[in-house]
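User: Some background: our group keeps a shared notebook of sequences we're curious about, and every so often someone picks one and asks for a predicted structure to add to the entry. Today it's my turn. The entry only has the sequence so far, pasted here. Could you supply the structure so I can complete it?
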Amino acid sequence: MNGWIISESQTAYHEGNEHLMQSMSRQLACAETWASNKWAASLVELPGLNVWVHSVPAGTGDAGGDVHYASVCPSCIVSRIALADVSGHGQAVAVVGEKLRELMQRYLRDLEQIPLMRDLNQAVREELGNGYYATMVAVGWHGRRGLMVMTNAGHPPPLWYRASRNEWSWLETRRVSERERPAGVPLGLLANVTYDRLVVKPQARDLIVLYSDGVSEAVSPDGDELGREGLMNMARTLDSSSPEALGTQLALALRAFRGDREPLDDETIIVTQRVAPDPQAIRPRSSNGE
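Assistant: Of course. Here's the predicted structure to add to the notebook entry:
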């Protein structure tokens, strides 16, 4: 595989109206990184992984404080997906976005995110100063091993749908080391923070859902917040056959929950699904082991 493809859908919901998004198909070479904090309804194909990205910035602009990222290493073995929620908009988002893009390039080959998180935490503190922070969740994906490594910096925990069990659960890291030091706090708040990892091996058709707090903190017309359990219950009722089906239906369910009103905060949903291996692509071994 020489790269991966991003295809944009054509519609997005904004200010009570349907707005046309430019349809686009883009192929990025290995070793490249894709990043955006703008409107998105995109299907991303990574080696062994399909990803659906839905992002709606709050307010009247076309860009917000939620920044989504995807990258593939030079050998197309390790991919990374990240979602950051930056406090404030404007320059703060630009600074964090550029620094994260730089660090994702530096760590393209690394499956784990702990060094990336530590470096980004320091950069946010040094370049933005007090009063700014970002939550972030990042997953590294090893296409050949089928392993996913997650690190969380104060971000809402992802959802995991196990297709073989028809079961939903949370993906939450457990602090296992350096117990005397703060762990998993948002980027930029404290120095010398440690970050832990969670390693899982999703099976074919499993879904993992990353989201920003604008999703779990959606508010109904009566003033009720959706909350984590409400989000879990909502996901259980939706089509889990593909990342696009679940992501699209979840966005519509959130819109209905809000009473068709615009979100009060940036809303981003990223749904990943492990792709079943193609039997035609598996060659039988010959007698000489090749």
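Suggested note for the entry: The chain has a mean pLDDT of 83. Residues 65 and 166 are 34 Å apart (CA to CA).
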